[in-house]
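JOB MANIFEST
job_type = single_chain_structure
chain_count = 1
residues = 230
[input]
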Amino acid sequence: MKIIWLGHSGFRIEIEDAVLLIDPWLDGNPVFPSARRAEALAGVTHVLLTHGHGDHSGSAAGIARERDVALVGIYDLINWWQAKEGVKGIGFNKGGTVDLGGAKATMVNASHSSSVSGPEGPVYAGSECGFMIAGEGHVIYVSGDTDIMADMAWMGELHAPDIGILCAGGHYTMDMKRAAWAAKKYFDFKMVIPCHYRTFPLLEQSAAAMVAALPGVKVIEPKVLGPITV
């Protein structure tokens, strides 16, 4: 399995027979090298969306159309993209599980907001979510944009993820200290990868606080397009 950061909250996960792109905001992402776009998209089988905000979904429909692959996410948002852009879609909802090339993706709760930009302001885009992605003997918790939730208690117990991809930039989501607290309180991660940070000056620039708060956990500060092999 390979986990590859695409900058901000975007990831490429090569797992089972799937190549999953999670929230692949490439166009306009200041930390993504546009010259390496083809590398990031090579062999993609599905595009997963945690919510509608442009820094997560902004490139999704274009990628789905270009690569002829399905957008996967909350029913309301996926149906909207299908009607608006004519792309393939797999819309489901929290508690549901879909098989993506042998990898099983279960939608779980998040605590944030979700909208897309419209001519008169934000347009409702269904509920925000996260994913538990199981495959190759591992379970990856992709938090999406969220704060700490009591739901993390049952999510950790039921799904038992060993890898956490956690938003941790602060201001719009948990910061490093809050994400680390949640990781220690509710989960038994062997590896944690922070995201939704370093993109803009407003966000946290270092995972040092997370590293300090999680002794015994392998906290990896990802490099854009640098593979993390599991």
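[summary]
The chain is about 25% helix and 35% strand.
Helices lie at 37-41, 54-57, 60-67, 75-85, 151-159, 176-186, 208-213.
exit_status = 0
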